[in-house]
Write a structure and sequence with these properties.
Elements lengths: L2 H15 L5 H28 L6 E8 L4 H12 L5 E7 L2 E9 H23 L9 H28 L7 H19 L16 H10 L15 E5 L1
Length: 236
Amino acid sequence: MSEAMLSKVRKLLAQAEDPACTPAESAAFTAKATELIARYGVDRALLAARDPTTDPVGDRVLDIVAPYARDKVGLLAAVAEPLRCRCVRRRQGNGFTLHLFGFASDLERVDLLFTSLLVQAAHGLAGTEVPEGEHPAAFRRSWLAGFAQVIGGRLWAAETAAASEPGTPSVALVLADRSDRVQRRLAEQYPRLRTAPPRRLAGTGFGSGAEAGHRANLGGRDLSTGPSADRQVGGR
């Protein structure tokens, strides 16, 4: 991403994350940022189809630490998959190491959105009261699950909208090929990868978290939408 666009997106996301920002202002800032990010992903994919050297397949490693490390992993997966990235989770201490695979431009988009959404989730949790008699951790885990599920669905919609712009009939084929190449890259590194069993959550915060996910206003057609101390990133 060019420095000018990167600076613009970061500024928009920082404004949206400001606690002093009104809901309407936050919606406008994050909608514009996500539209820019989605459109950028399609533009880079089309450019790389003509010149693969401009956007190579790569990977990076992220360390997700407590508290709520597994829930943050769920949010990262909800962001990564719509943006055509794949991630492998590995236990590390009281947290996880995430090995993320994707094209360079898509990995960059995941990093931007995940960082912003972690902040938005933290603000949402801080403003949500835990029901009387419920265990706070159980409620917050289910809240984060609801938030992540809605975010993932809305990102899928935003990416689909960006890919269906008039005048770009070859986009679907280009993006499908990119997804296949990312999957092959992952399979080369993890030929015996196993799928984790479904998670069971006991808290009652899912609905409240889902509502917060809708309020995140991710932008795109027919949609409304600074580094975190909880995340450490290393490149490969």
